[in-house]
Design a protein that fits this description.
361 residues, alpha+beta, Beta-Lactamase, Arc Repressor Mutant, subunit A, five-stranded antiparallel sheet, 10 strands, 18% strand
Length: 361
């Protein structure tokens, strides 16, 4: 890369502008910002960026001005026909040897060759892309990402090419940052989905075992299985005693889970030290001891309605049943109303009587 054609003042402006690219966390946002940035320093009809997989190049994401989008949509059939007739002349778009390079189109395909194919008359001049500068990112695997500056008439100068070459390392680094951010966000989303899928509640503890953060259902679980209210900012004594005893008994081994059993459910509590810097994790997994709900099918009930009927017969409130089944009390209320209608009764005592007198229950 040569920057001899750029003044120190121009280099400073370019550096300050390029620094803005590092704040973006998605490739879409970066694409829009890149187009805006480059158009400030390189005169063109429009700039556009594309990000595609060479195994399915039709799956292309385009970031451009409104005018660029309109032109692209209008001329897409023309370009597709041109590519079909001249596949070798567009293969550079997918050539890994071009990754990391800035090129004028005439440096890739000689202008006389392009003229003979009808490229300029059919597509380039109507599409305001008779002259092009292209920067190909060093994208992973079969993906290819490029920035294109487009205009008709005057060829892009050596100075304009130097501007794109100067910006290229920043575009590359910002692109890699976005890939890393997107990968991290996918991992976080997968982890969150995993926690939700296995119905875990949790407490984050600091190094002194004081409560740093707690999920919503933990207090009700503590009350249900330990028979006490959740203390403010600290663990119940029973849990603290378990942790102390476990650390003394098994100093070099994982702590065995605490399992508390009740008539209709069990609670498994696990301890994971040092899961985050300065933070330890307690998880709570409640499992219902399921009765034979299928026995209520003879009454014409769904499985969920059978579950609700069983717990109503055990004297549980709507909110308590909601906690047991992991759904809201309002949803339980709706199920109870459906049970009234299906079984032809109007109170919970009658429901409980039906449940206990059902010959298959």
């Amino acid at each position: 890369m040569s920057t001899k054609s750029l003044s120190s003042k121009e280099l400073r402006k370019l550096s300050l502008a390029a620094a803005e690219l590092y704040k973006f966390r998605s490739r879409t946002d970066l694409g829009h910002a890149t187009n805006f940035l480059v158009s400030r320093f390189v005169v063109s009809e429009y700039t556009m960026g594309w990000d595609a997989d060479m195994r399915s190049p039709q799956d292309m994401v385009i970031y451009a001005s409104k005018e660029g989008v309109e032109l692209g949509l209008k001329l897409a059939p023309v370009y597709s026909d041109y590519v079909a007739r001249n596949p070798k002349l567009t293969s550079h778009n997918w050539d890994p040897n071009y990754k990391g390079q800035t090129k004028l189109v005439r440096e890739i395909v000689p202008l006389p060759v392009l003229e003979r194919t009808g490229y300029f008359d059919e597509y380039a001049r109507p599409g305001s892309c008779e002259r092009q500068i292209m920067y190909f990112c060093k994208s992973p695997g079969s993906r290819t990402r490029a920035l294109t500056c487009n205009r008709n008439g005057r060829e892009f100068s050596a100075k304009e090419k130097s501007i794109v070459e100067f910006l290229a390392p920043h575009l590359q680094s910002a692109y890699e940052n976005c890939l890393a951010f997107e990968a991290a966000e996918r991992q976080v989303a997968k982890a969150a989905a995993s926690w939700q899928a296995i119905s875990l509640e949790m407490i984050w503890l600091d190094q002194d075992h004081l409560v740093h953060e707690i999920t919503a259902r933990v207090p009700s679980l503590v009350k249900e299985f330990l028979g006490q209210e959740m203390p403010l900012h600290r663990l119940p004594n029973q849990l603290m005693d378990w942790l102390r005893a476990s650390r003394v008994s098994y100093p070099a081994e994982p702590i065995r889970p605490m399992i508390i059993r009740r008539e209709n459910a069990t609670l498994k509590i696990r301890y994971y030290p040092d899961q985050l810097p300065g933070l330890n994790l307690l998880t709570f997994h409640r499992q219902t001891v399921a009765p034979e709900f299928e026995n209520f099918r003879s009454l014409g009930l769904t499985r969920r309605e059978g579950e609700v009927l069983h717990w109503v017969s055990q004297g549980k409130t709507n909110d308590e049943i909601g906690i047991i089944l992991g759904i809201s009390g309002l949803t339980i209320k709706k199920h109870v109303e459906n049970l009234f209608a299906k079984l032809g009764v109007n109170n919970r005592v009658a429901l409980a009587t039906i449940a206990t007198s059902n010959p298959q229950a």
